[in-house]
Amino acid sequence: MLGKGRIAALGFQHVLAMYAGAVIVPLLIGGALGFNSEQMTYLVSIDIFMCGIATLLQLTMNRFFGIGLPVVLGCAVQAIAPIILIGEQYGIGAIYGSIIVSGLFVVLIAPFFSMVVRFFPPVVTGSVVTIIGLTLIPVAINNLAGGQGAADFGSLYNLGIGFGTLFVIILVYRFGRGFSKAIAVLIGLIAGSVFAAVYRGISLQPVTEAPVFHMPTPFYFGMPTFNWAAILTMILIALVSMVESTGVYFALSDITKRKLEKSDLTKGYRAEGLAIILGGIFNTFPYTAYSQNVGLVQLSGIKTRKVIYVTAGILIALGLLPKVGAVATIIPTPVLGGAMVAMFGMVVAQGIKMLGKVNFTSQENLLIIACSVGVGLGVTVVPDLFKALPDFVQLFTSNGIVAGSVTAIVLNIIFNMIPHRKEKEATEQATIEL
Q1: Which site in 10, 49, 188, 380 is 20 to 30 Å from 309, CA atoms measured?
Q2: Are 208 and 74 in contact (CB under 8 A)?
């Protein structure tokens, strides 16, 4: 039997493991869209709060939703670039309208996802995640240099604390053990911020001005609007997240020695969809199962959901305290940039890892990867490439992630799902020989 003190400590450990990954999503999106300090504080606080609510939805088993595994949900990192693009092109309302619709889509498709998932083999999901990571790298480098348009962009100070933060993260990964490696990004952010505070000072004004307590406000940034290009983008991101979450579910089922039935997966997807809908209503972001917390379950050997209930409770409590959220908003931009290089690089690495399951002796698979990544990055670099095409076509070419994803899905159908003439001839020849 675990004592209450140990359960609380283990729950807090799970919070630390996912905190940096969860907080950096609103920091990047809010920063890119020009939110002020008050808006940023709300964004970070409500994000933390909703991470706790989303986790509770998965823990609570009933007939409709909840997979009942020790899973922690947080913001989907792969949604950062699409959300920034939607916000810049169509406005804040379109972000949350597309998130709400994508969440509804996940809830509706949950019972049938096993039929859809065959369109998302590793060659597709790996290509999509790689494109997402590569799209994010320029954002990280810009922030490391001080932020686009900064007066001291590229100064020795900015480069010093940016690369210094990255160096600390690398050192922790190299020499840290167990849990310290799990929070390497958090340690790097703290170290970089401390150095910046000592060298130049950091304004604590956002923390002092933030209220002590607040309640979540639906549609804080205004009513949602619905744009088809934005909705299609978020649906594609939701599908990729569902594929990733499936891997987390099966990893946890293996650790906990619990066999998952199709109904369990359906309830897990529904819980994720509900979390995404709530994220849109309360102006946060899409949620997905966090793999870093799976590693903690494995390392600690503690598989009970009681620990994760504590984690969810801590996240909800922290989300109701804006001063806690405001602390994250005072992290200097170059420090964030240094951490982003590691995090977004890890997104690319995760995509490459997923591609590691692909049969590379197949020229068709190589062509799928080459074309999808090429189209995805090409559209990202030259966003006006398809400007002359009809609006309906531009739904699929409005940004690099969608264009690359659609390319990967279509080519996978052509090369791997439609029987080839040679395969038919080989089958016919084998039949004749028999």
Answers
A1: 188
A2: no
* DSSP character string of 81-129: HHHHHHHHHH-HHHHHHHHHHHHHHHHHHGGGHHHHGGG--HHHHHHHH
Q: What is the CA radius of gyration of the chain?
A: 22
pLDDT, tens only, 168-200: 999 998 888 766 776 788 888 889 999 999 988
What is the CB-side half-sphere exposure of residue 125 using CA atoms within 13 A?
23
Q: How far is Cα 71 from Cα 48, in angstroms, rounded to an integer? A: 16
Tell me the per-residue pLDDT of 291-308, one tens digit each, with 9 for 90 and over. Answer: 767 767 776 677 888 989
Give the span between the Cα atoms of 54 and 99, in whole angstroms: 14
- Structure tokens given for 300: 């600690």
Is residue 381's pLDDT more than 60?
yes
d(CA 267, CA 256): 18
Residue with tokens 């996240």: 315
Q: What is the 3-class SS of 299-347, one letter each residue?
A: HHCCCCHHHHHHHHHHHHHHHCCHHHHHHHHCCCHHHHHHHHHHHHHHH
Q: Where are the domains of the chain?
A: 4-418
* Alpha carbon 62 to chain centroid, angstroms: 26
Read off the amino acid at residue 324. Answer: V
Vertex 296 angle, CA 290 and 302, to 5°: 120
The tokens describing 289, both together, are: 């199962």
Between the alpha carbon of residue 378 and those of residues 135, 371, 372, 385, 417, the distances in Å are 10, 10, 10, 8, 26
Do 43 and 31 form a contact (C-beta atoms < 8 A)? no
DSSP 154: T
Where is pLDDT greater, at 83 or 430?
83
Q: Tell me which residue of 305, 315, 330, 260 sits closest to 284, measured CA to CA.
A: 315
CB 194 within 8 A of CB 202: no
Q: What's the predicted TM-score (pTM) here?
A: 0.76
* DSSP state for residue 66 in the 8-state scheme: -
CA–CA gap between residue 263 and residue 275 (Å, rounded): 18
What is the C-alpha to C-alpha distance for residues 236 and 405, in angstroms, rounded to an integer? 8
Q: Which residues are bridge partners to 289 per DSSP?
A: 73
